[in-house]
Amino acid sequence: MNIGSLVVRGAALGGFALLLSLSLDAVGAVATPVVDPLVVTVDNGAVRGREGTGVREFKGIPYAAPPLGVLRWELPVAARPWSGVRDATQYRSACPQPSRYGLTDASDDEDCLYLNVTVPSTAGPATKHPVLVWIHGGAFIGGSSNLYPLDYLARHGDLVVVSINYRLGVFGFMPHPAFAPAHNGGYALEDQRAALRWVKRNIGAFGGDAGNVTVAGESAGAASVCMHLFAPREATGLFEKAVVQSAACAVHLRSVADASEVGRKVAALVGCDDPATALVCLRAKPVKDLLEAATSVGAGELLAFAPSVGNDTLPMQGADALASGKFVHVPLLNGGNRDEMRLYVGYDVAAGRAVTPDNYAAKLRAIYGDAAPAVLAAYPAASYSSAPAALGTAMSDFMPGGGLSNCLFLESGRLAAHFVPVYEYEFADRDAPPEMPDPGFELGAVHAAELPYQFPHISHTYRVDGPDLAPPAQRLADQMAGYWSGFARSGRPGAAGLPAWGRFTSAGAVMRFEPGKVRPFDAGAAHHCAFWRRQYPEILRG
After folding, report:
1. Which residues, at least 6 apart from 325, have a Cβ–Cβ distance to it below 8 Å?
2. Residues sharing a CB contact under 8 Å with residue 349, sequence separation 6 or more, in sequence order
3. What is the pLDDT of residue 30?
4. Predicted local confidence at residue 46, as pLDDT
5. Rounded to whole angstroms, how far apart are CA atoms 288 and 59?
6. Residue 9: what pLDDT?
7. Could you tell me the residue ranges of all domains in the chain?
8. Bridge-partner residues for 97, per DSSP?
9. Do 43-330 and 335-463+478-542 have matching folds?
10. Residue 284, H or E segment
11. What is the pLDDT of residue 220?
12. With CB atoms 3.0 to 4.6 Å apart as the test, which of 35, 342, 457, 521 could cross-link to 466 if both were Cys?
């Protein structure tokens, strides 16, 4: 007797929900499992994502509890389990931040510790795709995982790609004497490590290989990758490879004690300057008041909320860790952009702080001090298309205390290469989509200019409405995706049909990325690093 078909929902196998169809007839029963790939079970419950073009996307998954109330300025704690199937088709809020340069989005929502997972349509519970975890940039005070479309890297590179939010600025990187000393000022980095531990526990359910995780980032996200490398006691085992895009791992950072002055100033502005009650007082303050105070304290100092050194989160300076080998030993893909600092010269010019042939020498003196006459002779404004371009070129080649320095990128790679495989690169497409409105001079391959080649249409706002790449640039993007995914897969960047990219052995062995000109070049010569080494031998030692 045929009594029809009964569908039972809710079983799970390998993290994927099943539809168990039971066909019953007179001679017995046959059970045929059918996987629903859009429902995945993680350690706190099940989530339902959405289908994309060649990918599946899972957004807004909590990896830690909201850092509210008494959890402000505490280590991240586990997210609570949920019942049923949680919707994972929409991003959740960015962490609290002001709008910057009149371009980026603001947020005042502390409930922000979420991550996103995008997988190729071929991924399943039995697959083991390489995993890339992306840490966003934003000068340690802004940005969000929500701004980065992950589908291109997942689809083109056949990778499982994860992006994460983490606490920012006053909430994530600010130390204060009232905070617990072991992780004082390191809560953002601890958020990132909690997310990496979540990936290790759960990524297999999405078809990712928990034993093949690459942590990657750009700008403040890349600097965060450096900080994880420099904390082997806390970070060993959280990733197998690392990508650093536009951050000098060897840059000198302030101590926790020195950086705590920022915390004291913020606390004083919001009326929490009594040491005995400062922590309780700060936790009671509205997000808006703390952001306004932080903006005031950080005015004029781009990296006021940069990580600080001298606690369990970040025990030692980067140059010391790299020189001594006391860092997490994993293959490293490292580099930056040809004209990094021209972007910030552009912001200054747009804000009315003009750079002219008449004030060019004074601008150099403000940055380089006693070395300014030698810098002026090596970088005369008349040799460049404009005075702002000359200033931006000098600053991009090297500037003391700056983390966006090509010679310091090379120094970081040189030190690390004594202990681990390093692959050094430079992005040099001077026709990349603009990162800001035209400031009236040639920007070139500025800071963040490579991001549209990895995250199509990124615009640093939630609109994600950047332009399409021109055909030559798109071909370059495809090549870069091949190199980056090859590195995530095997620890060696490359794929069939791409020029060979050898290990970094000298400044002359750097891979340069320009449309139609992907090839090794001498980055040390191009950025006059021998000159800069003579001016700053205590920083550029190689």
Report:
1. 418, 419
2. 355, 388, 439, 440, 441
3. 52
4. 98
5. 26
6. 33
7. 5-37, 43-330, 335-463+478-542
8. 107
9. yes
10. helix 278-284
11. 98
12. 457
219 given a catalytic annotation: yes
Query: Which stretches of the chain score pLDDT less than 50?
Result: 1-28
Buried b / exposed e along 306-332 (16+ C-beta atoms within 10 A): bbbbbbebbbbbbbbbbbeebbbebbb
CA 14 to chain centroid, in Å, comes to 30
Fold of 43-330: Rossmann fold (3.40.50)
Between CA 266 and CA 253 the distance in angstroms is 20
Which is the catalytic residue, given 144, 219, 260, 485?
A: 219
Q: Is 23 considered catalytic here? A: no
Which one from 340, 435, 450, 514 is the annotated catalytic residue? 340
As a whole number of angstroms, the distance between CA 235 and CA 74 comes to 18
Are 217 and 224 a contacting pair, CB within 8 Å? yes
pLDDT in tens, 61-74: 999 999 999 999 99
Residues 6+ apart with CB under 8 A from 230: 249, 314, 315, 316, 318, 321, 326, 327, 328
Conformation bin of residue 443: beta by default, left when phi > 0, alpha when psi is -120 to 50: alpha
Q: Which of 136, 447, 460, 528 is catalytic?
A: 447
Say which CATH topology domain 335-463+478-542 has. Rossmann fold (3.40.50)
Whose CA is closest to 362, among 375, 350, 351? 375
